[in-house]
Amino acid sequence: MASTKYRLPWRVGISPSLSVKLTEGCGFDCCGGNSEPRDLKVIKDEIASLEDWPRADAITLVGGEPTRHPDLAEIVKSARDVRTKVVLCTNGYDLGPERLCELRDLGLWGVNLRINRSQSRPGWRDNSEIQIEGLRTHYAEMIARVGGLLCGFEIEVNEGDFRQLADVLAWAERNIDRVQRLVLHYSSNGSGKAPGARPDDMAENWTASGWIASSDTLVPAGMVTWRVGRRGSDILAASPRLLQILCEGYESMHKRNFAFLNPQSFRSQLTCWIGALSDMSLRPLAKEIVASLTSPSKVVSPRLASQFLFSLDGESKSTQSASCTGAGWDSLAMAAASVMISGAAV
């Protein structure tokens, strides 16, 4: 299956996104309510070491729960001096609009949230997937209101739970203009059931256009779907060819592999427009957009939204996992600490 799709030029665990851990413990019951900050000087040394990795596209701040570090503002500024893309990976428990605005003004570029039923989140135990989706929507709307920030989610999906997967994908489609990145992790629920359908098996607009190899082999560890559309309208999956053009064009322009794409930038919008007009997979979307231009009231900003879905195999040994269910995490990133120790190339 992977042979017909574009293979991304990086691998899971050796990605162009490098993570820096700020705290030990997520602050939920699974960690005894504790979240201990790491030493600020050690964190700054790890951030500074990333200067030696010019192909790294982004710095992700992970935990534990990074919002509980007392020097988070200073850390964001230090990371911003090294890379433009600084992404906060959080469970969102201690994050509100005012703090988001402050961090954005200091250089924060995006937020990657981890919100799942399996977490011992105070006040949200034993809730249904629909109720948890409501919490995810709350954060997506809050980030959209603050503005100027990419919004992503890391979501655990039980193997064989077709209903949960269908609900997550439907939620993502409804929020394509608010959620730009979605990472699905498949984990065994211990039921012994056969593996459930992957997104590319469900519908044409979730067909994967690329795949990611595991960290030590060329065995597929995950699939990638790039979806383009407008809220409440046609949302379609881009072809492998368009994903390849994006990756190779980004590398040619920035001299690094893309980890996150800013959906609000002019270049991103231009890429979506060119893709809609040239990619057969997006041709129905192009016809709709062209038709809308005949109405003067719709000429103003018929913006396109794009969303990347990373579907990761839970059985892959190369896929990183957080030490607890409540930790803020970037499962595609390579830890900065391991970069310093091993000197592995990105």
What does the secondary structure layout of this molecule look like, with pairings?
Elements: E1 6-11, E2 17-21, E3 23-24, E4 36-37, H1 40-49, E5 58-62, H2 72-82, E6 86-90, H3 97-106, E7 110-114, H4 129-146, E8 150-158, H5 162-174, E9 181-187, H6 199-202, E10 210-213, E11 220-229, E12 235-237, H7 240-254, H8 266-278, H9 283-292, E13 305-312, E14 334-335, H10 336-342
Parallel strand pairs: 1-10, 2-5, 2-14, 5-6, 6-7, 7-8, 8-9, 9-13
Antiparallel strand pairs: 3-4, 10-11, 11-12, 11-13
Helix pairs in contact: 1-2, 8-9
Largest sheet: 12 strands, mixed
Structure class = alpha/beta
CATH class category name: Alpha Beta
CATH fold type: TIM Barrel
Number of helices: 10
What low-confidence regions span 5 or more consecutive residues with pLDDT below 50? none
Domain count: 1
Distance between the termini: 26 Å
Binned strand content: 15-25%
DSSP strand tally: 14
Computed CA radius of gyration, to the nearest angstrom:
19 Å
CATH architecture: Alpha-Beta Barrel
SSE succession:
EEEEHEHEHEHEHEHEEEHHHEEH
> Overall mean pLDDT score?
84
The backbone outline, from C-alpha atoms, is globular
Helix content: 25-40%
Structure description:
- With 346 residues, the protein is of the alpha/beta class.
- The chain has one domain (2-293, 302-342): Alpha-Beta Barrel (TIM Barrel).
- It is built from 10 helices and 14 strands.
- Helix 4 (129-146) links the parallel strand 7 and strand 8.
- The protein is globular.
- The mean pLDDT is 84.
